[in-house]
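Hi Y.,

Following your request, here is the sequence exactly as I used it, all 277 residues.
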Amino acid sequence: MRLIKFGSLWLAENNATDDFSLSMRVADSALRGGSFDGDGAAVWPEARTFTRSFELWNTTAQTIQEQMDLLKTEVARGRRILVAETRDGDQRQTWAKCVGCTESMAPGGLGIQGISATFRAMYPYWTASEDEPYYFDDGNYFDGGWYLDSGNVTAETISTTSTTLTITNNGSAGFVRGVLSVTAGAGEGFTNLHIRNKTNSYELWWNDTLAANETLRIDFNTMTAEVDFVDAYAGIVIPASQMDWMRIEPGVNNIVVNVDSVTGTPDLRWEWARHYL
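Below is the corresponding structure, written out as tokens. Let me know if you'd prefer a different format.
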């Protein structure tokens, strides 16, 4: 995989090399006679750094200084979307900041400027670029989060007290990101929502009532719940032993959504995107 774009800036290909690192979270707990991994059998990636070394060449279109100014301007904007390309030509993207930019010029290198840029990804996974667009300020999130309006969507209606749905994640990694929304139309509603991913036994409750013409929005990554943009976190209940609100594993995930009572057929919408290490 190679880095190709940071924010709006396409990274130079001249003599470019990329260094990708992958770090895992360490949570060992000491026991008599040894230790055990506090995370159990699962491996949980951490945020990590990538380094790209390349050269800026003097051209008739842009001088080296002009190219360096563009790079520094983009770096100064802070968190941007970092885009990479796999060997097969597929694009992946993640949020990142440039945390280091080193300039070097070897003797006799007139017209060539060596650059080494280090990027730190705050989110430990890459996502498929065709699942989510290149949004920086979409009106809802100011340079602060993914916008899932063109991601994968699994939709159902809640017409009985137990509804099942399937999410098939053909990415290579499990993920916690995703947004579940339920919209009750005129004369519709439900009480006490219970979500369970039977594939990994993750569960979440929202113990409250959704009235007619209201929309409940649960964001599993930011760990927020809102009804018509008003905080509804008080209804959330998560098992004490569960590290995340919800987690989707690679492959087929069988989801069960239960409610204590339902009127009409509220619309359920689960937005998600494929994730890769």
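The first strand starts at residue 2 and ends at 6.

Thanks again,
Q.
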